[in-house]
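Quick one, T. Sequence first:
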Amino acid sequence: MRNRLKLVETITTESLSGRIVSNISKIVFYFVLIAFVLSNSSVAACAKRNKNVEDQIEVVATNASPSHEFVATLYIVSGGGAGGKVVNLRKKDERFDPKKGVVFTTTGSVDITLSWEGNDHFTVKHSRAGNIYAQVKEWGKVRISYVESD
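Structure tokens:
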């Protein structure tokens, strides 16, 4: 009789612990699923809010190459926590697109001056303040120099 009770007790305990583990696994699974769905929906909302990047752009300066083949644009991107100053290059017959031709990006209060040293040599002069995130050395046939100033 005692052996039967121990056997029933063992089966009941194993069955109960198995159910607890199973329930905890389900809870963890649903928690992870909810966290994933919420994180993706907030990313989608941010992407939707930032879809019209042109609405967050302020063009500061444009500078054409001596032959007017290329145009350099300095603009400020604001909003969405990723603000900063950006320089892009484009061919003169192309529309300005802040997502294309990016050659220089920085954050902080950086002073930037754009100049052409010829039709295929472009210079970005910038102050030391801020963080630099991109410095492209060539864009198509245009060589790009960067000069740090005080």
